[in-house]
Design a protein that fits this description.
- The chain is of the alpha+beta class.
- The chain has a single domain, classed as Yope Regulator, Chain: A.
- The protein contains 3 helices and 6 strands; from the N terminus they run H-E-E-E-E-H-E-E-H.
- Strands 1-2-3-4-6-5 form a 6-stranded antiparallel β-sheet.
- A hairpin with a 5-residue loop joins strand 1 (22-23) and strand 2 (29-33).
- Helix 2 packs across helix 3 (110-132).
- The longest helix is centred in the C-terminal third of the chain and has 23 residues, at 110-132.
- The radius of gyration is 16 Å and the shape is elongated.
């Protein structure tokens, strides 16, 4: 399956679910959900691998904040099923990654994947407030 065929499967599904997906210049699928920009990163070499990301939801502005973000990301990842919160440069990303027997099997867990990301982001933000004494 080519990258464009796999991306088309994702965009068809998202369109059926009421989203307005687009394919970006890298061939990945992007869409908005509740004010956030999400991506499905398409892997032609591994079509059974599904990766949903919410990139750049938090910008890190100092070394001190980076240390706190590292701790908060670790807690959020440990506290949330399936979701990962990671630092990418000076930004924080959340993602869900899974393997499926067939590329179409992501459909059964898509909404729960979005929910897991939102839970992880909320946990990260709560931890950042606690670490900052707010």
């Amino acid at each position: 399956m080519t990258k464009s065929e796999l991306a088309a499967r994702y965009t068809d599904f998202l369109t059926d679910q009421g989203f307005r997906p687009e394919i970006d210049k890298d061939g990945d699928v992007k869409f908005l959900f509740e004010g956030g920009l999400y991506y499905i990163l398409v892997s032609e070499k591994d079509p059974e691998f599904f990766r949903l990301v919410y990139p750049n939801f938090w910008e890190i502005e100092s070394d001190e904040e980076k240390m706190k973000a590292t701790i908060a990301a670790s807690f959020a990842t440990a506290d949330t099923k399936v979701a990962k919160v990671i630092l990418v440069g000076n930004n924080v990303w959340a993602s869900v990654e899974s393997f499926f027997e067939s590329p179409d099997h992501f459909k059964g867990v898509f909404r729960r994947s979005i929910s897991a990301i939102r839970t992880a982001v909320s946990s990260f933000r709560d931890n950042m407030k606690q670490l900052s004494g707010v």
